[in-house]
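Input structure tokens:
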């Protein structure tokens, strides 16, 4: 199964991708994580992406598409993937479709996790993430048991450099201008599923899984 997760920054794509990969035994590919890893290692790719990420802009398609397409052809992706943060504009979606077509595969579903703008801002400003396993926490709504430490793996929690008010605003702007058109793109081919993204993490996972099952039966 090949699934694309769509949603604004802060919609919970990372959290839900984590839950879904376990439930459905798929590989989780997060373009933002790939960039942050490259940045952490100081590779050429990381250096290329850095300035864009800091400003909340999209990294150019040329760089992003190459990186993700390379990643999804590795053996651990053969059984299926959940893409989180990619595609983020129509050009990326088309490149993805073409690459999968060459492997006689294709995207099965695009799950749009819908969250109001006020809620997105609230979530992003208090976000802390585990350096080791990327699990997200929130100062107010889901604080870790021990301050600064991941509940799941004990890793150190940090705040992303782009989770500051100014960059958050820019990222939301980019989402509505560039990524929102993908909702229409996937709806045209009847792959779109819209899920209400407010509520508890477990409720939202359950909504996504039951929507996927319902849609899968109709196929
Ligand atoms: P969020 O969805 O919360 O903004 P991500 O971790 O997905 O966070 O992305 C962080 C940053 O990485 C983006 O603001 C952008 O600069 C870059 N990035 C991630 N995915 C893409 C993509 N598909 N195309 C272009 N840039 C991307
Ligand atoms: Zn952790």
């Amino acid at each position: 199964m090949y699934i694309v997760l769509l949603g604004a920054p802060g919609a919970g794509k990372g959290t839900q991708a984590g839950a879904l990969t376990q439930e459905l035994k798929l590989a989780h590919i997060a373009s933002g994580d790939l960039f942050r890893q490259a940045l952490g290692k100081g590779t050429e790719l990381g250096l290329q992406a850095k300035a864009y990420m800091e400003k909340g802009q999209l990294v150019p398609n040329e760089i992003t598409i190459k990186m993700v397409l390379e990643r999804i052809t590795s053996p651990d992706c053969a059984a299926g993937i959940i893409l989180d943060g990619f595609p983020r504009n129509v050009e990326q979606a088309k490149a993805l479709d073409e690459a999968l077509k060459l492997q006689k595969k294709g995207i099965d579903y695009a799950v749009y996790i819908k969250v109001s703008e006020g809620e997105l801002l609230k979530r992003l400003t208090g976000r802390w993430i585990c350096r080791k396993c990327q699990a997200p926490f929130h100062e107010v709504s889901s604080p870790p048991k021990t301050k600064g430490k991941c509940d799941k793996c004990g890793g150190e929690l940090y705040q992303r450099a782009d989770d500051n008010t100014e960059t958050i605003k820019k990222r939301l702007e980019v989402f509505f201008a560039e990524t929102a058109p993908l909702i229409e793109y996937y709806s045209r081919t009847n792959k779109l599923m819209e899920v209400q993204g407010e509520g508890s993490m477990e409720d939202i996972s359950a909504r996504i899984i039951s929507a996927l099952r319902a849609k899968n039966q109709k196929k």
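Residues 149 and 156 are 5 Å apart (CA to CA). The pocket of adenosine-5'-diphosphate (ligand 1) is lined by residues 9, 31-32, 35, 52-53, 56-59, 64, 85-86, 88, 92, 162, 171 (CB under 6 Å).
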